[in-house]
Amino acid sequence: MTAPAADSATLSVTTHRFGRLTFDRSQCVLFADGLPGFSSCRAFVLLPTAVDALVWLQSLDHPDLALLLLTPDAIEDGRAAIPETLRRDGILSLVVVTLPGQYRPGATVNLKAPIVVDRAAGTGRQIILPDSPFGVAHPFALEALVTRGLKS
Hints:
BH3618-like; 9% helix; disordered N terminus; globular; two-stranded antiparallel ribbon
């Protein structure tokens, strides 16, 4: 990340996926403990996509790390997976998407450990729900979601 001037509210970072990004410092989301598996990544920015229910969580510490996140309300079982205590005004609950690949024929979402962002405070945390009946690889129809999202 480029160090901002003392009086600047603008930051910029060059990422592998998105190239050079410039954004307001207030858009940063700080994860005090990082994310599980990425403890050294603490500063992120949320980037919109063409589909309202999807956003990218781009690391500002490691330009090659960007996680695709989904609003859980966009999929069946998603709303039920997020406890009511995490559904407060100003709190954004999101789940990590794993894209299809060589060893995984379809997209999945992690409903067991949502990412929670307090937009006003600029902080975030991934919360592991040990008693959740939902798993870390819950299948969902990514293509249908994208098609629906692009039409609206």
